[in-house]
Amino acid sequence: MNALRQAIDEYLDMRRDLGFKLIGAQRGLLEFATFMEQHQAPFITEALALAWARQPVDLQPASWAQRLSFVRVFARHHKATDPRTEVPSPGLLPFRPKRAEPYLYSDREIQDLLWAALNLPYHYERGALRPWIFHCLLGLLSVSGLRLGEARNLELCDVDLDAALLTVRKAKFDRVRLVPLHPSTCEVLADYIARRQRHWAGHQISSWLFVSSRGNQLDAGDIHHTFYALSRQIGLRGVNDSRGPRLHDFRHRFATKTLVNWYRREQDPERLLPVLSTYLGHVHIADTHWYLEASPELMGEAMRRLERRWESRS
Question: Is 169 annotated as catalytic?
């Protein structure tokens, strides 16, 4: 095996052991190893790294910057064992990614989505559970703050309705956390699980909470495709729109609604923010701050509190 390719494999294994998933980095670095082999290059140079990063000429600058960052991070690590390694300068292909502007769903829009999910069409009897799957999945995302991947990876054993708890085992960095549930959410989950058991009675299927019409884990692509179709159906997206509200925006709604409720109950949001951060599964509280931006309702509550403080001093 080529020495550089072997070093990349060992680097990826080490990072995974630390909890990083590295899906994009693995693909990129293995492509880079092939590029280096084609050029018969014995060690990494800044020029080669830059040439590889910009090889797909039709990519956006953000993609070029990301590809170069894969090599840069690896090169810093590899330089300790191969001093000839050149680490690409941080000034090369500078790009600051712009996070998507969050969309804050209204209560009515959530209700419309859930109602539309219950009316999803299906063509065969084995698909009869599909409307209830998406009704329950979208409802859970809207009230729990879970990431889509976390909800999709739930298994039946992760749902404790007696204790009103979800165990999230496959979160970022392979962390495990407990997510408490409201009694109304437990009722919906209990109803769905009972329907799931009746639908698949006598069949051997996977243990995933949300299963496809074949009884295996629900496909992420199918989830997005179905969500986009439901969004167009209720008017959240135009018929030909390629952009619009996302599944991830359910987390924004959950975070902002939580903070607004704290304000209205005269609780201390600053003191309680670490609780919300833990609930959302964030490692750094700064990640939670970003979820709280761009909410007129939240800004209004903050301004009212600020005005009361100034009035009390006057």
Answer: no
